[in-house]
UniProtKB/TrEMBL annotation:
<feature type="domain" description="Glycosyl transferase family 1">
    <location>
        <begin position="186"/>
        <end position="354"/>
    </location>
</feature>
<dbReference type="InterPro" id="IPR001296">
    <property type="entry name" value="Glyco_trans_1"/>
</dbReference>
<dbReference type="GO" id="GO:0016757">
    <property type="term" value="F:glycosyltransferase activity"/>
</dbReference>
<dbReference type="InterPro" id="IPR028098">
    <property type="entry name" value="Glyco_trans_4-like_N"/>
</dbReference>
<keyword id="KW-0378">Hydrolase</keyword>
<dbReference type="Pfam" id="PF13439">
    <property type="entry name" value="Glyco_transf_4"/>
</dbReference>
<dbReference type="Pfam" id="PF00534">
    <property type="entry name" value="Glycos_transf_1"/>
</dbReference>
<feature type="domain" description="Glycosyltransferase subfamily 4-like N-terminal">
    <location>
        <begin position="14"/>
        <end position="177"/>
    </location>
</feature>
<protein>
    <submittedName>
        <fullName>Glycoside hydrolase</fullName>
    </submittedName>
</protein>
<dbReference type="GO" id="GO:0016787">
    <property type="term" value="F:hydrolase activity"/>
</dbReference>
Amino acid sequence: MKKIMFLTTGLSTGGAEKMLYSLLSQINRAEFTPVVVSLIPGGTIGDRFQDLSIPVHTIGLKAGAIPNPIQLIKLRKYVHQIQPDIIQGWMYHGNLAASLSRNFIDRKIPIFWSIHHSIKTLSAERLVLRNIIKIGIKFAPSCQQVIFVSQASKLQHEALGYSQNNSCVIPNGFNLETFVPSLESQRQLRQELRLPSNAFLVGKFARYHPMKDHQNFLKAAALLNSKYSDVHFILAGTDISTNNSELTQLIQHLGINNQVHLLGERQDMAHLTAALDIATVASAYGEAFPLVVGEAMSCQVPCVVTDVGDAGEIVGNTGKVVPPQNPQALATAWQELIELGTEGRGRLGIAARNRIIANFSLEKVVDQYEQLWRLSNK
């Protein structure tokens, strides 16, 4: 049995963090023993690992900070205690910590990285992250394998100088038993929001961050609302609430207060997703393999996505792909799906779920990770 230490940047509610949970929920526990070490403490995903009986530790790093000597000593202590056979990094900071951890153990063990970000331009990234990406160029060649979640991300990093000799693509995978079509979810969400049973719902589920470009989504919403006043827009995620003055001011300025519903951070994403008529990714940059796209497709909800990372490749011909930062294109794509009618969207939804089954099931993704780990010491 191989003991794997998963070194992740954090365990908040994000796509990469959710994918780590999904991966470990299906890992072969007769063959692999997982232990999670998070650089940043807390997080809703971290709490859920208790249900899987997977130990979770943290070195107590603050978001955006550099580890101090005490935190490095703590990391060394965990490496000595766990005595891993494999160290799997998760996201940029976790990847560098994984490579650093090699110095804390007296035997050679394989290091794997997992990168969940795409890069439009380095200048678009925060200074700290920009520097970490650059440092990664030097450390990546010493890894057994650098795993990217999208082909676009792999090519972008290689263009920056990341090695082509030890990299591969393993996409995100989706639990097709959790994310399913549900007429009951459609009924319940409209009831919760006190909307008519036939209200048309367009959703975007993402934390509030410039990368996610809520401005693009809301400007498109205002454009569509001028033609379809019965469409409602559902937003959920970290900082997506009435306490976010920047967000609420934009909604008021666009005159769509009555059409936009801010649900905050929710734990019932399968329920929310299945309730939508159209799911949307409106991101400007940074997405590699948006988890919310595959989740919506699994629920037979057609998607409109901006052409960022591999979003367009995931959707294929089951939805619409538009340029980023183009509200008119986004609104037009929504309108085209609305005009398809219930039956037309239903056919797209069925094709979308079948596409996930064929290409992105969680079982297939877990198998690809396990194959890499099995071969790591051979």
